[in-house]
Specification:
Blueprint lengths: L2 H6 L1 H32 L3 H29 L2 H24 L6 H26 L2 H53 L20 H14 L1 H20 L3 H8 L7 H23 L4 H21 L3 H29 L5 H29 L2 H17 L2 H5 L8
Helix pairs in contact: 2-5, 2-6, 3-5, 3-7, 3-13, 4-5, 4-6, 5-13, 6-10, 6-12, 8-12, 8-13, 8-14, 10-12, 11-12, 11-14
Length: 407
């Protein structure tokens, strides 16, 4: 599968351009708000941590609701455009508050935009299901993952540059313009698929009933159930090691904390190269094989990171982790697209996201006390074990193939 084939597809081309604009807005907003709050509060830890609360809380509160609404309204294109436009409007409101002297309004910029993202994400998956064939789905997901990997490297640089040179107002203005541009691009994709009147919406069914129906649907589908549980195991592993990277540098390697940046360089390079490799493999490997390879390599890389005693070995471990990380998200996303009916795609997406994020946040909270009780190699080994658990949970998925996976 070549890039040219995907670029010629009208919907895929629009999604790629829209995602570039959205990523610009997200990264400029995130870095600008972070640097602005640090500057205003003198790097006050509670204030800085409140930014993370504003980013993560909507995942738990609105992800499943967004999935229900995406399935109920059956007009995902309108929902995506509305959410992008709403983000731009919220940014304008925050800028007005700043002009009036209320700098704390920047927290609202992050929170409102994060809420709207959780409403738009399931709608995006539903629209993707409508517009992209199964043959193109996995290569397209791989291309999007590569795009996200590029912004993982370039995003912080871009956000920091914009804030350092032009300040918070210009950063927010660029963010709003980027979201408006994303909405404008999505306006040119094909119309939402026409549905019979009796299938339009969910009538008088309650949100809770729709949620319960989505949970039952996910639970009875082996592929969806086991990949969701696998994703939750990954969240546990990622959450456990996320706060511990700096301790590997200071305690295991005996280097200053600032040297953590050297392990992020190979990680960023690995993400980009991994996205390129995954795109090439996406048309040849099944989603299960991509997902399994990513989990296996990440498990080994995480364990190696915890046992590192030299900077070069830690950098190599980070590179290995990042290189196959895109395969995890591409394989998982392709499995969901392939084995979920369109009328449930929003709710399935809305269920899976908080499962992983909840597991990740829970382990982040426990990482500090666990470090006091166990060594870093033991904790990194346990985190790698979580990825192995995620791989073992995929075994039932390997036993089902083709139409059998739909039973």
């Amino acid at each position: 599968m070549s890039y040219t084939v995907l670029w010629r597809h009208r919907f895929i081309r629009a999604v790629l351009i829209s995602n570039v604009l959205s990523q610009i807005g997200i990264w400029v907003r995130n870095l600008a708000v972070l640097l602005f709050v640090m500057e205003k509060t003198g790097a006050d830890a509670p204030s800085v941590s409140l930014i993370s609360v504003a980013e993560y809380a909507p995942i738990f509160l609105f992800s499943l609701i967004g999935g229900v609404l995406a399935d109920r309204w059956r007009r995902p294109k309108r929902m995506i455009i509305g959410c992008d436009a709403g983000s731009a409007v919220s940014i304008a409101g925050v800028m007005a508050a700043l002009w009036l002297g209320s700098w704390q309004a920047v927290f609202a910029a992050t929170f409102v935009s994060a809420v709207l993202s959780q409403l738009a994400q399931p709608a995006g998956m539903k629209l993707f299901k409508q517009q992209v064939s199964d043959e193109l789905a996995q290569p397209c997901i791989a291309l999007l993952q590569m795009l996200f990997a590029v912004f993982m490297v370039a995003g912080p640089v871009l956000g920091t540059f914009v804030y350092a040179h032009w300040g918070i107002e210009a950063s927010l203005a660029l963010t709003g313009a980027a979201f408006l541009g994303s909405a404008a691009v999505m306006a040119f994709v094909p119309r939402d698929a026409a549905l019979p009147a009796d299938e339009e919406g969910s009538g008088g069914a309650s949100l809770l009933r729709d949620m319960a129906e989505g949970i039952r649907y996910t639970a009875k589908k082996p592929v969806l159930l086991y990949t969701s549980l696998s994703f939750m195991a990954v969240g546990l592993g990622v959450g456990l090691i996320s706060p511990l990277g700096v301790f590997v540098i200071t305690e295991r390697l005996g280097l200053p904390a600032d040297d953590l940046q050297w392990t992020m360089i190979p990680y960023g390079i690995g993400e980009v190269l991994g996205g390129l490799a995954a795109f090439r493999l996406a048309s040849r490997w099944t989603p299960q094989k991509l997902l399994a390879a990513g989990l296996a390599v990440n498990a080994a890389g995480i364990a190696a990171m915890g046992m590192s005693t030299a900077l070069w070995s830690a950098m190599l471990a980070q590179f290995a982790i990042a290189l196959l990380q895109p395969a995890i998200f591409i394989g998982s996303g392709a499995l969901v697209m392939k084995h979920t009916e369109e009328r449930f795609i929003g709710r399935v997406t809305g269920i899976r996201t908080p499962l992983m994020t909840g597991a990740m946040v829970a382990m982040m909270s426990a990482a500090g006390p666990l470090k006091e009780a166990f060594s870093l190699p033991a904790l990194y080994g346990a985190a790698g074990g979580m990825f192995v658990l995620g791989l073992l949970l995929l075994l039932p998925v390997f036993r089902v193939s083709g139409e059998a996976a739909e039973q």
